[in-house]
Hints:
By secondary structure, the chain is α+β, with helices and mostly antiparallel strands. It has 2 domains: 2-63 and 161-262, Efflux pump adaptor protein, beta barrel domain (Elongation Factor Tu (Ef-tu), domain 3); 66-152. It contains 5 helices and 12 strands. The strands form 2 sheets. The chain has a 6-stranded antiparallel barrel with strand order 1-8-11-10-9-12. A 4-stranded antiparallel sheet has the order 5-4-2-7, with no helix packed on it. Strand 9 (209-214) and strand 10 (217-229) form a beta hairpin. Helix 2 packs antiparallel against helix 4 and helix 3 (83-107) packs antiparallel against helix 4. The longest helix has 40 residues, at 113-152.
Amino acid sequence: MRVLGWVILAHLGWSTATLAQNVSAILEPVQVIELKPSVPGRLAMLDVAEGDGLAKGAVLAAMDARVQEARVALAKIAAAAAGPTDRADIVVEQATELLARITKARARGAAQPWEVRQAEQALSLARADAQIAAETATRLGAQLALEEATLSEFIMQAPFNGTVLQIIAEPGAIVDTDETILEFGNLARLSATAFLPVDWAQSLKVGDRVSANLAGAEQSSLELTVAAVDPRIDPASRSVRVRLEMDNPDRRIFAGTTIELRRR
């Protein structure tokens, strides 16, 4: 068991004499996503390259949307059709005028009561038809909005300012909704997860600063801020998981860079 313990400490990069003067960790973007399509189909456009820096909202990729575009076109035609509502309004106007004439005729004794009731029923039916036409127009408008919203799902945009880290799929490929097209991350702020000895981790709190070097570059100097300290101790290695973050405004440090944390 003693030998195993020494192996664990050596594997974690700890100095057994001082119990962890240096601990290795890997920097990754705080914000990173695996871009996946919202709809399955053929990847029609992927006009970006690895390393491209893009602003929020920039188009990263697009699925083949020809069928959905046709549905939108049909929905626009249906929503723009004013004939049914215009016809219904004219019928209501005619029924209203007819009822007015028969009502006046009845007052002069020139029309029967059943004629008045018939004219009233005709007006009620005309108004009901006008209501149906208006409801249909509303439904067609909502259908158009739905088809347009569905069409927007075929376009994949950058959710934040960031950099294309890795391209996985190629244009023309058939992809499903659980397949990653590319990885996109914001290199302006990086994070690292390190497993620190208990006595080191216990001395840290959120907001503290920790010094580090780029691996293999002793003269480089970085400052990271403690973002979170796991309250649990790993029983096997007697270490604590600590998450640290640092600003990288000029994007000079790449994702995946190894650093060596230094204990002050």
